[in-house]
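Feature request, filed as a ticket because there's no other form

It would be nice if the structure record came with a short human-readable summary line next to the tokens. Right now we just get the raw output. Example of a typical job, pasted below so the devs can see what we mean:
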Amino acid sequence: MFFGKEVNILQPLAENYELKNYERSFYHGLYSFLTHVPSSVCACIGLPTRLRLLTSIDIHPVVIPSGLDETGVQESDPLKLVNALAFQKANAVCEMLSASMFASDPKTLVLGCDSVLSMDGAIYGKPINPKDAFNRWQQMRGRWGSYTLVMG
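Raw output as currently delivered:
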């Protein structure tokens, strides 16, 4: 699925300062992973934007929802929380695949992703409905720099 030429296009993207920090970080991490040339990619992603990022660089993963109950993961630090959630999602998918895909293809890469919004010391997950999203936008309005989207 991946060859040197395709993987090498990621390095300039990881160093492109016109991209947002999270996009550069995403491409840098992906470049690091893909230089080990996995033969297939599974992604436990729920957001269409993450899938678009992957497909924009011609990576077409098998998308497998992890089914992880995120309420059981408790962390007060947003970065530790997203990293723990991403790891547990990837681990859950690995367990689902262990008997089937890994047995036939041990070079499968599983990407686990998560993000939270940190604002005023509180951590917010995905909005539960459009009204919840609208209320957050109202809360953030005019307060540039007082909130952070943390991705892992």
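Something like this underneath would help us a lot:
Residues 1-10 have pLDDT under 50 and may be disordered.
The chain has seven helices and six strands.
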